Amino acid sequence: MLINGLVIRPGERVLTRLVISRLPSRTVIDVPVYVYRAQEPGPTVLLMAGMHGDEVNGIETIRRLVRRDLLQPLRGTIIAIPILNIYGFLNFSREVPDGKDVNRSFPGNPRGSLASRVAHRFMREIMPLIDYGIDFHTGGAARANMPQVRCLLGEDDQTDALAAAFAAPFTLHASLRPGSLREAAMQQGRRIIVYETGESLRLDEAGIELAMAGTFRVLHQLGMLAEATAAAQPSIVCRRHTWLRAKFAGLFRSHVQNGQFLEKGQVYGSVADPYGEGTVRLETPTAGYVIGLNHMPVVNQGDALVHIAWPDNLPPGRTEHWPHLLEMPPERRRRTTIRYRIIYGAECSVNQAL
Prior knowledge:
Aminopeptidase; alpha+beta; single chain; five-stranded antiparallel β-sheet; CATH 2.40.50.100
């Protein structure tokens, strides 16, 4: 196996560093890559985090696996990259300094933007070596994700088997996004699943433990570990999921928690006028599980509030979203109705809001 100009033989464990670029101060930016090769041949599995520098849960997951010396394959090879986007990690940022997203820059270009160069180096040095991969992520922009695996379900048996082995609390069907790592891997016949948990710049201890346990199950399923702890309960598989978005700007208060099951029409939160002139109650348009939650209290129209998913045996229900006004003094209802009509371009009746 050849990585970064270094020959890694069976039975060897190596740390190498991919030089990406330099900071304006001339400080070298390199990406540490841990390689664990067994004596016996087998599949090569990538464990990678820090594609977005502020998504720390995956970084902590791989750090623990490396620090505790838990990556000892019986066969094949494990490649562990705790942080791909060193720039974002240093700046507590999702993107690289040019503002671009590495996970929308694959397969990259050696003469392109900084994000494109990071992607290209990965595609040249790492992608040709792997068979399977787990890409660890965290919710962004004050949004917290319930522990979940995202992948293309029903497209090929290998991906389905990886997701089933990981057995996260939720398994979601997620289409390939242009420029993403998953798309680039699929085009080369390699299978990568994404694990998401928690919120950016916040450690989610339960999600980290689930990530480690799921990783062990995948490695065990591939014959690379002798044993792994079975999942406490079966994964809830959801092929349909959507974000409920704010119809109105204001102060958002959530009334639900991640993982909670909501009945159709159940109130999941409210958006209030910051000057105390009205509050809008938010109801779910369909039954389903909360798998993502916005913790940002100040929201604009169109902001994602709650990510809801439903298994195949639950009807999708209607897609429109019509919240209701909470109780307010009768003398204020009319002017609140007029205010919403002017600001939001829609009308609220005395007893029913948009």
